[in-house]
Amino acid sequence: MSTMYQVLRGPEHFLPPAAASMGIRLPDPGQAHIHGKIVNEDEAMEVAARQFLSAKVPTIFPGPLVLWAWNEKAAGKATAIRHLYETLKECVTPSQQAMLIPMPDYRPKYPKINPEIEINPNHPNLTIWHNKIDTCMFVGVHCHQANLSLKIIRGGTYCYTIAMCAQAGHEDAMVSFRDATADKIRKLADWVKKLKGSVEPPKD
Amino acid sequence: MSKERIKIAPEMFDIMPEEYQDLVERATYGKEGRGWKDIGTSKELIEEHSLCAGCPESMAFRYILASLPAPEDTVMVGSTGCTSLVFPHVGVHNIHSLFGNQNAIASGLKRALSVRFPGQVKDVVVLAGDGATVDIGLDMTLQAWFRQEKFTTICFDNELYANTGGQESGLMQKGFVAKMAPVGKTFEKVKLPEIARESGCHYVVNCTVSKPNLVEKVIKNAIHVAREIGPTYLQLYTPCILEIGKNSMEGLQEMRDSEKPTERFAYKEYVSDQAKELLTELAAKEKERKAAAKKQLADKQLAGQA
Question: What's the pTM?
């Protein structure tokens, strides 16, 4: 299905349409999407790495599927995510601040979450606004919660969203990978390392 | 059954909020003989809550969560009401059902868990208010008991609809005038404990939550009986201090006043013959466990002296 709709940085408006309803489709294995356009996975790796390196506050949001050591696979992904975070920290300039903020569970928390130390899928904008996050990556978040959050983020913030999904990907992210593994996360870290110094850091 | 199943990925431990670190390191998951005395000595499965100051329901919640025999293998099913404000804070799996639907959800859940985890203990505990249990959900409550579903139903009886402003409920006492029921209740409080007994519940208790050791005992009994034999029902008086015109400090006294022998929450218990047999067996085992633990401690002290 051809489409004119592009999944771009927000704030789009109060109720952005679900990208799927605008004709955005999910990538097939080996593919990814950038702003809704299906591309080769390597192309998306490069774009994601560039986004991280050009952001003031590039942030990774690991979800419950990787925060908790359910099994060896989950623990392996957690190690790879930490590696990506450490790589990011090494590769950004002192004016940039890489962050790793967990989404430990999905419960709405009363009276509110502490946006300095966690993100909640029901109001992800609080953490993004508080920390001035301009690029983020979701990983290890159950798909329905990721869809909800990605849409809220697109609706109300300027944040660029990347989804490292272990299933079929997310239409509502600006860049979406699918079939995420620990190796794929490490590959993204390699791209960040490879592009270090070649991407202009953000201007104040 | 232990904390082994609840682990944070080592690489992520330092970024997890403190409450989660505490939960996996200092909570009582897997502890044999856990109970209300653990409150204040180790990480509780609920600490902060969003109920009113002094609400007896918050005490009840703490005692119940401290007394679950196997919290890591327990799923609680809640319903609309004050309890649903608390469930987002508890460290036990829980499901929020539609108003009144809780016993139907619990029935399906219990059966699904038995199929998915054959041979493993998985407890299901329904915890709902009197509106959900007796008025809106009475059909589902009774049908689950008729079918002999193996789970525990706990009703927090505050004798009215509290968080919507004080409407009349089936468990309200006769003659009571509430903010949204100005005429006063014209018929008697529904005798659900008696109905539960006649509907096939094997362990039924009607009491207040003024005594934590008693709450611990009945919770453990109810869950063990439900696990092995069939449905159990606990009706716990958790007065809404706001709706009955009391102050924050007066909840405990209200419960003590209501549990006197002639009052409506005088301790009442029904145990079926099958359940009696099981509870006697469990009591004997518990006695043995305590004696062995005592002996082990004495031996250890003796070895230390030598």
Answer: 0.86
